[in-house]
Structures are given as C-alpha cells and as structure tokens.
Amino acid sequence: MWIYFLRRTVLAIAIVAIAVTLLRVMIHAVPGDPAVMMLGPRATPALIAEFREKMGLNEPFHVQMVTFFANLLKGDMGTDVFTGRSVTQIVMEQFPYTVELIFTSVGWAALVGIPLGCYSAIRRNTLFDKITGIASVGTISIPSFVMALYALLIFAVGLGWLPAVGAGEGTLGDRLHHLILPSLAVGIPWVGYTARIVRASMLEVLGENHVRMARAFGLPEMRIIFRYALPIAILPTITLLGVGVAYLLSAAVFAEVIFARPGIGSLIVNAVDERNYPIVMGCVLVTTVLIVVATMISDFVNALLDPRAREGL
Amino acid sequence: MSAASDPLLDVRGLSLDFGSPRGRIHALRNVSLEVGAGRVVGIVGESGCGKSTLAYSIIGLLAANAEVVGGEIVFSGRNLIGLPDSEMRALRGREMSMIFQDPMTALNPVQTIGAQMLAIQYRDAVPTREKRRRAVEMLAKVGIPDPESRLKAYPHQFSGGMRQRICIAMALLVNPSLIIADEPTTALDATLEVQIVELLKDLQKDMGCSILFVSHHLGTVAELCDDVVVMYAGEVVERGSVRDIFHAPSHPYTEALLECDPGRIRQKTRELPTIPGDVPNLIDVPDGCIFRSRCPKAFDRCAREAPAPRRVSGGHEASCHLLDELAEAAP
Amino acid sequence: MSTAEDSGGTRRKTVGDGAFMQHLRQLSRDQLGMLGLILVLLIVLGAIFADWIVPYDPLKIYAGPRLAPPSWEHWFGTDQLGRDVLSRVIAGGRVALQVAIATLAAALSVGLLLGLIAGYGPRWLDNALLLLFDAVRSFPIIIFALAVVTLIGPSLYTVILVVAITSIPNYARIVRTQTQAMRTNEFILAERAMGAGPARILAIHILPNVIGPLLILASMDVPLVISVEAGLSFLGMGVKPPTPSWGTILNDGYSYIRNSPWPVIAGGIPIILVTLGFTFLGEALRDIFDPKLRKDL
User: Fold this and answer.
1) Is the separation of the CB atoms in C283 and C32 below 8 Å?
2) Closest approach of A69 to chain B, Cα-based (Å)
3) Distance CA B306, CA B291 (A)
4) In chain B, what are the domain boundaries?
5) Interval A222-279: pLDDT, tens
6) What pLDDT digit, counting tens, does each position of A58-70 carry?
7) In the CATH hierarchy, which fold is given to the domain comprising B3-234?
8) Cβ of A143 and C152 within 8 Å?
9) CB contact under 8 A, C9 and B22
10) Domains detected in chain C
C-alpha cells in the first residue's frame, strides 16, 4: 500500500512541476516583450528595465528556469512587483480563507448530498425521489457565480438574514456565519450532483449478487444498506469530489469576489487587474498544489474504504 | 398425518407469473415437488425452464414483478405464500439458507470473511468468541487451510473455488434444515466441480440437512442427489428417485436429456445429439402437452390435452400420455 | 440450428429513411429533449436576429429612467445608465453565440487533429498527449484563464482562446479512441492495402462513428463555455464595455445590487435557460446515440 502512495506522490509532484513550468514558459511564449505586456500602459523604459531586472528576465532562459525552481524549493515564489513583499507571504495569508471555503463546500456536498442520494435510492420513485431529482437537475444547471449572485440577492440583500461581505472577525462563530452563504453558493450544485451519482450508484449496488446473498441470510435491511451497499456505492463519489476540487476552486474565485471575502480568488482577481504576474503565478502554484493534495486525499480515503484498491498499482 | 412422515418442504401446485411489457410470462405452472428431511433433491432442466425461479420463490427473493397466482409452498407445516416479509426474513439464514451460482460476486467485497461469517450469526445470543470459533470450525470443514488467520482476509484474496467453499461454509454455519443450492458448480471448472460435489455430499451426511440442488448438469445430480425433479418450460414433467430417473426415464424429455448428456455417449459419433426445436413461448402457453413441439413420440392426443402426472412406480411420476397408453395396453 | 422465434420486440425501421431522419424522429419522442431543442433554438435565433428584435438599442443610454423596475416599456427594467436590460440580454446572446461557435470550431478541428495524431502516431506520443490532456483538464478553468489574461490582456479573443484550449482534450480523446480502434480493423488494413488514402479512411470510417459522441460532448460543453465567458466578463476580464454580454450585465447589476435587483435577475436567466436547454438536448442525444454506439463497438 505504501508503494501505491509513493507512486501517487511522485505523479502529483510531476503534475505540479509541469503546470508551473508551463506558466513560467508562457511568459516567453507570448509574442513581444513580456515586461511591456505586463506593465501595460504604465510601461516607461526605466520601469521596463527595472521590471526585467526584478523578474530576472535578462538572464538566459535556462538560468531563469533553474533559478525559478531552486527558489521554489526554498519556498520562495518571488517578490511582488509593486510592494516588494514576498509572494509566498502574501499568498499564504490569503490561503486559509479559501481552504475553509472549499472545505465547507465539499462538506455540504458530502454531508447533504450523500444521504439525499442514498435515501432517494432506497425510496425510489416516491415523491421524495422525484422532487430531489428535479431539484438536483435544477441546481446543477445554474452556474456557480449566478447561484452566488442570486444567493446574495435573496438572503443577504433581500432578506438580510446573512452577511454579504467579508469572512468575519476572530471568533469561530462569526467566521462560520460568514461562511454559510458563500459555501452554499459554491456547494449546492455539488449537493445535487453528488445526490444523483450516489443514487445511481446505490441502485446499481443494491441489485448486485452480494446484496442478494445478504438478503438470503435474512440480514436486517439497515445493515445491508450500511455495510453491503453504501460503502461500495460511495467509492465513485469520493473520487469525484476529489477531482471536483478543481471546479470548486473556479467557483470559489467568484464566491470570494461576490461576497468580498479574502482568499486566493480575490487575490488573483486583483492581481490580474494590476498585471501583477508574480502574485498570479503564486496563486496558480498554490492552487495546483491544493488540487493535487485533494486528489491524493480522495485516493487515500478510497483505499481506506475499498480493500481491493490497496492491491492495485 | 404424523409429523414424522410430512416432508420438510412440500410445493403444491405452485403457479407463478412475471409481469412484463409484452404480457404476463407464465414462468411456473402447477409445480409440485417434495423434499424430505435429510434428503437431497435435484432439479434438472435446460436454461429457462424455471428451476432457478422455483428456488427463488421458495426463499422468497423474487423480483418485484413476480406474482404467485396459485398453489402453496409448505415449509415445516407453514405456507410461505403470503407470509409477511418479517416472518420470511426470520426463516432466511436460520431454517433455510442459499448457495449462489457465482462465487466471485456473492461475497461482500469490502468486508472480511470473518466479519461476514459473524454477521450471519447475528441472531444468536452467544459471545463473539463463540461465533468466531464456529466460523473457524466450519471453514476447516469445507477445506480452507489455516482458517483462523483467513478470517481477516477479504474475498478478493481467494480463488473462485475457495470462495464457493466459503459460501457453503456460510450456508451450513446457520444450521438450516434446508439448503437451496442454485447451480453452485456451474461457474467452476470440472475438477473444482467434482471437489465441491464431494464436499457437499460429506457435509450433508454429517449435518443431516436437506438440500434442494438446482443444476443442468446431469452427472452432478446423479452423483449427489437422492431424488430428482425434471422440469421443462415451467412445468414438472417427471420426478422420482435418482435411480428411477436415470435407469427408467419415463418422459420423452428425460430420455432426450439423458441421451444428450455427453457423459453417456457410448459409441463414437461425429455429431452430438441435441433436442431439435425451441422452448415454447411462455406468454401464450400452447394447449396440450408443453413438450409436444419437440417430442419425437407426440401423437394427436398430445395436442388436445395436457397430460396429468401418472404413477410409474412408487414415488416415480411422469406427465405423459404414453404412460396411459401403456397402462391401457397392458393386460 | 434451431429456428429463431420472432420475439416481437425489435424496433422497425421505416424503409428508405436516412440516419438523420431516424434520429430526428427519435428525438421528437423525447419530451425533455424537444424542450431543450426549443430553448436552444430560441437563444440562437434570438442572438442571430438580435438587431431586428430588440425593442431598444442595447447601447443607447437613458432609453429610460435609471435602475427602473420592470414595466411595459422595459420588460426587464433598466440598468444604471438607463439602458434597456431586455435589449442588452438579447444582444448578449450574440456574444455567447460567438464564443460558443468559435470555441466549438477550434476545439473540434484541433481536437480532431490531435486525436488522430494520438491515435495513429507512436506510443510515446500518445502517452505524452494523454498526459498533457489530463494536466489541462484537471486545471481550474478560471484560474488558468486569469493567468492568460494577465499576460495578453482581457478581450473576447482571450476568452475564446482559453476556453478552446480547455475544451480540446475532451474532443481529442474521443477521436483518439475511435482512431485507435480503427487502426487495427482488418477492413481498414484491406483498404489501405488497396491504396486508400488517409482522407478516405477518415471520412468513411472514423467520422461517422465519432459524430455521435462529439455531438453529445458539444451539447454538454456549450453551457460550460458560455458560463465561463459570462464569468470572465463578469470579472471584467472578457468583453469590454459597452458591449453587452450576459456577464457584463451581471457585473453592472452586481455593482448596483442594492439599488435594483432586476439587472442581476435578468442577466442570470438566459444563462440558466441555455444550460437547461443544452443539458436536456444533450441527454436526449445521448439516449439516441449511446445504445447505438454500444452495439457498434
């Protein structure tokens, strides 16, 4: 089993390396002087020269790449073009807010979606099932940022039940209070999606031979559902949620902007406005790492739940 | 009638339909058979004759579109038809247990063998230690080496033959009076089949339970069973002791089946014998004898009238008009 | 051999119908699919004929009072510059359509090419391309888009470029799978032995089999593409004002959300309808093409 994880880790690092390399290379792939490009209308010859110096663009290409990776390994993602602060520091300040948003959203999907899907399967074709089905398709069809806007409109602006701005101060309670609306906006489409997948999966597993055999031995239905069906039906969902973190991150960008929350999303949007490429790169890097870690966690949980997975690879 | 002479399982005139978009499928028609205590009864017939359906109706695990339209299934004096599900569940895994056809998918892949064997004993108020001991003992009986440590293993770590042994162990573990075995050796290769059959024979003698053994393999049935029921297209066409059926087959279908069995071919031949024709449509069941369209000995009465079971000798019955003719012809 | 009995359950084909008519007929039986088709046509036609059907000029400021609620004159009300929101929404469809078509065209053509290369080419190339596809696919689109925008600036073309790049892997995969399957097909080998060129093989053997899954993928893809465009425009990274795009309408609405909820509501509606429409259509198409595909393979 440990060899399995070793291989996955190596693969993960490889993906991060590829993504990051691509981004660094992209600066040069773009026609024209990247410094001019990024400074935009502010470009004056003096500024350009300074920028090039700061970004190390005057060095030969391979030296740039080597320096870049060497710095990365040290944890140094460069310095902010405008404030001179360490990119790593800036990005890591904002990182926890995004993580808590993603985590809560996945939490909604798992904690609400899985039971909904499970119950829909057990009580298939009842009113509950049909309503859940329609609601699922409905919510999946609404893009996350539209959902966020509507949620803001209805619950914050319209009804005033929940805060519209920020991540809350200090106390856990306040922070959770500010998390509700954004995490729902990001997570609800996933609740619907998860419910559908779990339902389909459960229906399939409930028809399988080992469930029939358990019934033949007169085992109580609850035990059959929780020990013989659900652990198997859930497996594709776990993988899905892991992969879905990428989509969730896109949605999180919007949620942070719309709800004026701090986080990687807000950071990157502002950085793009300012053409602050080092920050953008830093955010991209951190995002990639987050996705890779999420995938690894879902693999891990998968192996935990499914003894067969531990053998493979 | 004294309880001692009553059969353990008495199926009387069972008729069962399946609802389908194309119409009602009359899968079982007036099926009767008996399983005595401690006896091994085999059900033979080609695919689609209803033998598995019969097995599942006894244990009560039919699909939702199945409907019993007549007859009774009397088990230990109780009619199982119409029994509420909770009472049926009380019987399953206690009085009766089942062995399935495909051992590769019959076991829960995410639970250890030990956990599953303990789970089926959930009704017993004995300590876990004792349940584990029983499980180990049974695994040893079915020939699993080093059973103590194997309890912690998962199904995918065993071969097909081993898994079927484990399933047999589980079926016996609950100490049932009746085991229903639905083609337990079909998915295994020939050498494994022989081993499993030998195992079942020994265990049955040891534990004294009854077995209802569904199979399309005549050789296995001859080896294992005391009594045989021959089914065709949802009906019982002949039943009797294994000796009766194999040495004195009285229904043309049984005769044809025996002739087709590769194991019985004595002369060298280029072509394997087959029974020409197809199984009839069970939505529009034809009048007369169900086997008529494929029977080499059919005559005009067969088309008009369905034959009733006629006694050939004590305990040996067959549903064929020819028996009437023979009886009448005899002085 | 025994004679087979007619089970009576086979689907009858009307003699003389081409495949297209059959599919159309099948589609007409699926209610949700037809609804989807209607929604899609509505949006598409609305976008094409926008100039003729808009009640007001979408760019004209002070066509009505600022931030007015819906009324007979302005069905969706007005935005902060007094522009008629309904007209802007209809015109916004044009941007969405442009993005969708451009992206589809790019993704299909490049995807086809890459898929063929991956399918026909050497093993290492195939593996390399697959790895590339996976890397691109597993990346959050928006973040990738933002990075590109930083480099080359926001515009409609940037959006099209980014969205096309992220769409290509899915199309390429389908073509690749089919190409690989065809590669070892004896029929193909025979044709090639007789001198059939790659174009012929492509047209006759590969294309008919990939059309189905590609269509399904496209109809699942389009709503995503449109959402991404709207999202980027919302962030100010897409089309530049005053061009109406559903995203910019939402952006304007967001800034003035406390004054009037209507621009936000109005901007979201077409996106939801488009997504629903294509989802229903896509599922209906899948019902039509998938069973057939399973039989063919």
Assistant:
1) yes
2) 43
3) 10
4) 3-234
5) 999 999 999 999 988 888 888 888 889 989 999 999 998 899 999 999 888 887 777 8
6) 667 677 777 777 7
7) Rossmann fold (3.40.50)
8) no
9) yes
10) 35-293 (1.10.3720.10)
Binding partners of C (≥3 Cβ pairs within 8 A): A, B
| C188 part of contact set with chain A, CB < 8 Å | no
Per-residue pLDDT, averaged over C124-138, amounts to 79
CA distance A34 to A25: 11
In this prediction, residue B97 carries a pLDDT of 95
Q: pLDDT per residue over B128-153, tens digit each?
A: 999 999 999 999 999 999 999 999 99
Which of B109, B110, B119 minimises the CB distance to A219? B119
Secondary structure in 3-state letters for chain C: CCCCCCCCCCCCCCCCCCHHHHHHHHHHHCHHHHHHHHHHHHHHHHHHCHHHHCCCCCCCCCCCCCCCCCCCCCCCCECCCCCEHHHHHHHHHHHHHHHHHHHHHHHHHHHHHHHHHHHHCCHHHHHHHHHHHHHHHCCCHHHHHHHHHHHHCCCHHHHHHHHHHHHHHHHHHHHHHHHHHHHCCHHHHHHHHCCCCHHHHHHHHHHHHHHHHHHHHHHHHHHHHHHHHHHHHHCCCCCCCCCCCHHHHHHHHHHCCCCCCHHHHHHHHHHHHHHHHHHHHHHHHHHHHHHHHHHHC
What does pTM read for this prediction? Answer: 0.81
Mutate to test the interface with B, among A206, A209, A217, A234 (most CBs of B within 10 A): A217
Beta-carbon contacts of C230 under 8 Å, excluding residues fewer than 6 positions away, are A143, A145, A146, C96, C238, C245, C246, C247, C250, C271
What tokens appear for B113 in the block? 């063998």
**C73-97 per-position pLDDT tens digit:** 888 888 888 888 888 888 888 888 8
Of residues B131, B130, B112, B113, the one with CA closest to residue B121 = B131
